[in-house]
Write a structure and sequence with these properties.
Elements: H1 3-7, E1 31-32, E2 34-40, H2 45-55, E3 63-70, E4 75-82, H3 85-88, H4 91-95, E5 101-107, E6 122-126, E7 129-139, H5 142-151, H6 163-171, H7 176-186, E8 189-197, E9 201-205, E10 214-218, E11 221-225, H8 228-234, E12 237-241, E13 246-251, E14 254-259, E15 268-269, H9 270-276, E16 282-283, E17 286-287, H10 288-302, E18 309-312, H11 318-328, E19 336-338, H12 351-361, E20 362-364, H13 366-369, E21 373-378, H14 385-396, E22 401-406, E23 419-420, H15 428-431, H16 434-441, E24 445-448, H17 451-458, E25 469-470, H18 472-475
Parallel strand pairs: 15-25, 18-21, 21-22, 22-24
Antiparallel strand pairs: 1-23, 2-5, 2-11, 3-4, 3-5, 6-7, 7-8, 8-9, 9-13, 10-11, 10-12, 13-14, 16-17, 19-20
């Protein structure tokens, strides 16, 4: 190896490649916390888990883990580590996970520390044997419950809010299912839980259905996942969404449907429809590619721009850009190309190289945009730095005009339910008018999809408030009590 290569700085800041993934990223996109996958009564469950988690990799790239149980013996096994699914699970790791039951997890951390102790599923020993917990989301009141439990003598091993439910279950004198129901009734927030012991699996969705969770069938077995794309990947047949406040209990006698809380208001996270979930997934029966196309079509009706081409910021805005182009008749072009191989933790050693890193992640196609009036479709604006960089990329490539259209209302409020959002003061839409944002991102014009237009585009049940979505990040109407002044719990 040459001295020049030896002296090159490493392009990440921790002991492993994905440590602190997303923090200090050159693009300030919102980050989903994690994804969960589970299977019950399915042969070679870990193989199913491997492919299911791989399909959910976009929901978390920092760590991955699985726990399995062999139903005939009750043997409980687990493996987890930092990194991508394909890096964490080699052939030897999968051979060490026998069983016909599995719960798995992919994680992206926010305030929680980036370390193996926080990788899920979290595994505990308690009076009835082994306990594994995997969750997607955030427990709003975890800090207060944690302090209460610590005063009562509990010793926490992680900084993850998920550990709270394990302590609540372990400290209860009731049977496992009753203890779990009591624990679920105490916590507030958005969550999808998979909880497994040596002889049972519990599946639960928060009372508002903030985080997505679906159920499928595979022969005589059951499969659960954060998104339907994982069911498709493993060959399971989608059966239904797990309902808000529902508790599914699976054991040797099959599956029993129970509830730990009644449904008061369905409020599925709007950002799942806008950005997080894969376009080939369905949420509450709504296909995301189709919903995003309708967002683009609705935006075209609300904000028609006389331009030469339409392009979408890859990957989440491609569907909406196609919809905008179809509605207006303006040609859709691949004006922006994403490099998928740079890694999401490209931390640069200098500002100069950091700015070059923008072009390593995203490139404008000069021969497509040069001399053109461009409509750039994106899903959201957080701090505004991403939009500014992309607008400037298009201008540097020769675009004569760059008009920015956002397929969501202005993002003004932080999320407390499992999305890594900055403080309100860092959200540009909470500090500036639309015109001020336009100037800040160097666009010729800027339009956001209206609140009502967004709801209409997504669809859903007319009889439910906001058609069953949480729009708190846009309208400040949170479905649960939140305390903006309290300590923020560490998601997943």
């Amino acid at each position: 190896m040459s001295d020049e290569i030896k002296q090159l700085p490493k392009l990440w800041t921790g002991d492993h490649y994905n440590e602190g993934i997303g923090r200090d990223d050159i693009f300030d996109k919102l980050r989903e916390e994690c994804g969960v996958f589970g299977a019950f009564n399915v042969p070679n469950a870990c193989s199913l888990g491997y492919y299911g988690l791989h399909a959910l990799q976009h929901r978390g790239e920092e760590s991955a883990g699985m726990a399995t149980v062999e139903s005939t013996t009750g043997k409980f096994s687990y493996h987890r580590n930092m990194g991508l699914v394909k890096e964490v699970f080699d052939e030897a790791a999968l051979e060490g996970l026998p069983g016909d039951r599995v719960i798995g997890h992919v994680r992206y951390s926010t305030a929680g520390e980036s370390k193996l102790a926080n990788a899920q599923p979290l595994i505990f020993k308690y009076r009835d044997g082994d306990l594994g917990v995997a969750t997607n989301g955030n427990i709003v009141n975890a800090p207060s419950i944690r302090k209460e439990l610590e005063h009562q003598g509990s010793i926490f091993q992680t900084s993850s809010d998920t550990e709270v439910i394990a302590h609540l279950i372990a400290r209860s004198s009731k049977d496992f299912v009753s203890a779990a129901k009591d624990a679920l009734q105490r916590i507030i927030g958005g969550f999808a839980f998979l909880i497994m012991t040596n002889d049972k699996m519990l599946v639960a969705s928060d009372p508002h259905g903030l985080r997505p969770l679906v159920m499928g069938r595979m022969g005589d077995g059951y499969v659960f996942a954060s998104e339907t794309c994982a069911l498709e990947t493993v060959g399971a047949v989608y059966e239904r969404d797990v309902q808000p406040g529902e508790l599914l209990i699976l054991d040797k006698d099959g599956m029993r449907v129970d509830r730990f809380e009644r449904l008061e208001r369905r409020a599925t996270c709007a950002m799942e429809y806008i950005y997080f979930a894969r376009p080939d997934s369905d949420i509450n029966g709504i296909n995301l590619h189709s919903a995003r196309k309708r967002m683009g079509q609705k935006l075209a009706l609300e904000a028609f721009i006389d331009a030469d081409i339409v392009t979408g910021v890859p990957d989440s805005s491609i569907s909406a850009a196609i919809g905008y182009a179809e509605q207006t008749g303006i040609p859709y072009e691949l004006g922006l190309i994403k490099n998928k191989y740079t890694g999401r933790t490209f931390i640069q050693p200098s500002q100069e190289l950091r700015e070059k890193g923008v072009k390593m992640k995203l490139s404008a196609v000069r021969k497509v945009v040069e001399g053109k009036r461009v409509v750039m479709i994106d899903d959201s604006i957080v701090r505004g730095t991403t939009s500014l960089r992309i607008v400037n990329l298009l201008r540097e490539a020769g675009a004569t005009e760059v008009h920015v259209c956002i397929t969501s209302p202005p993002f003004k409020n932080p999320c407390y339910y499992g999305i890594d959002t900055p403080d309100r003061k860092e959200l540009i839409a909470s500090q500036k008018s639309v015109e001020e944002i336009r100037q800040a991102i160097n666009a010729d014009s800027l339009y956001f999809l209206s609140h009502d237009g967004f709801i209409e585009a997504v669809g859903g049940n007319d009889g439910e408030f906001n058609r069953g979505m949480c729009l708190a990040c846009f309208d400040n109407d949170y479905p649960t009590p939140v305390d903006p002044t309290s300590e923020k719990s560490c998601s997943c």
